[in-house]
């Protein structure tokens, strides 16, 4: 590895959007830290895809809700690479709970969702801050959701968590300026294993039939926006970029 090789950490990069981002960074010449919580086999496949692009991949298991483990992850990145240029806070979770069924939205479900989707990005960004500040092009991109914009999504707690992440993005953009830019991407429904575990491909398509661009997002559509915010702009910070086929305009 040359000293000039940039490094990207993508949390939750075993599958879906996280994997798409990891591969895209590798194509751009980044070494990539592939983080996962449970899906080790999938994460190893992401590592193989990164390495197939001729870049180094570092595989780290860490649940971002655990601050101590997050700090160990960043320490390992510093030992292995000595730098970090881009952080993509993609790791997230949800429970699929009908919004009207308030009793089903239990305290335990709330705690899980907020721990991973809000505290997690904060913990990782905080732990990575000093390493990112050493880069001359540091960027944080939070993968949020239109659920945080319109209040419609897998559960009330999930929507609230993504609204909180959008607000956290603005707060961190102010706190970390001018050395580190912080932005978020807000996809609509994504054609991924996550949603397809709850509905058929036909149902997913039906959700988007009345959008101006009538199809669900693909992981690469979201990666387009992540890559832009991470590498394609130097003045954009504190923004949320909606990628939803025009659904929310």
Protein model, in words:
- The chain has 249 residues and is of the alpha/beta class.
- The chain has one domain: Rossmann fold, CATH 3.40.50.
- 47% of the residues lie in helices and 15% in strands.
- The chain contains nine helices and seven strands; from the N terminus they run βαβαβαβαβααβαααβ.
- It has helices spanning 16-27, 40-52, 67-81, 107-133, 147-150, 156-176, 193-196, 201-208, 219-231; strands at 7-10, 31-36, 57-61, 86-89, 138-143, 180-187, 240-243.
- A seven-stranded parallel beta sheet has the order 3-2-1-4-5-6-7, with helices on both faces.
- α1 crosses α9, α3 runs parallel beside α4 (107-133) and α4 packs parallel to α6.
- The longest helix has 27 residues, at 107-133.
- The termini are far apart.
- The model has no long low-confidence stretch (mean pLDDT 96).
Cα radius of gyration in angstroms: 17 Å
What oligomeric assembly is this protein in? single chain
Sequence of secondary-structure elements = EHEHEHEHEHHEHHHE
- Tell me which CATH architecture applies here: 3-Layer(aba) Sandwich
Mean pLDDT: 96
The structural class is alpha/beta
General shape: globular
- The overall number of domains is 1
> Can you tell me the CATH class?
Alpha Beta
Features:
249 residues, alpha/beta, Rossmann fold, seven-stranded parallel β-sheet, globular
What's the quick description here?
Helices cover 47% and strands 15% of the residues. It is of the alpha/beta class and 249 residues long.
């Amino acid at each position: 590895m040359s000293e000039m090789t940039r490094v990207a950490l993508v949390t939750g990069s075993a599958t879906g959007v996280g994997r798409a981002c990891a591969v895209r960074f590798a194509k751009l010449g980044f070494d990539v830290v592939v983080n996962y919580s449970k899906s080790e086999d999938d994460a190893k496949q992401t590592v193989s895809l990164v390495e197939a692009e001729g870049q180094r991949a570092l595989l780290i298991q860490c649940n971002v809700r655990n601050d101590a483990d997050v700090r160990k992850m960043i320490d390992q990145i510093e030992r292995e690479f000595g730098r970090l240029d881009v952080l993509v806070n993609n790791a997230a979770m949800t429970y699929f709970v009908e919004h009207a069924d308030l009793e089903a939205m239990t305290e335990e479900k709330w705690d899980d969702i907020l721990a991973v989707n809000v505290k997690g990005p904060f913990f990782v960004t905080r732990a990575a801050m000093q390493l990112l500040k050493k880069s001359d092009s540091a960027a944080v991109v939070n993968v949020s959701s239109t659920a945080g914009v319109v209040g419609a999504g897998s559960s009330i707690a999930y929507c609230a968590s993504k609204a909180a992440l959008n607000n956290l993005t603005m707060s961190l953009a102010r706190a970390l300026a001018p050395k580190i830019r912080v932005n978020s991407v807000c996809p609509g429904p994504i054609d991924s294993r996550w949603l397809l575990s709850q509905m058929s491909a036909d149902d997913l398509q039906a959700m988007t039939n009345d959008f101006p661009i009538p199809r669900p997002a693909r992981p690469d559509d979201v990666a387009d926006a992540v890559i832009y915010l991470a590498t394609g702009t130097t003045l954009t910070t504190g923004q949320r970029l909606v990628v939803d086929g025009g659904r929310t305009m």
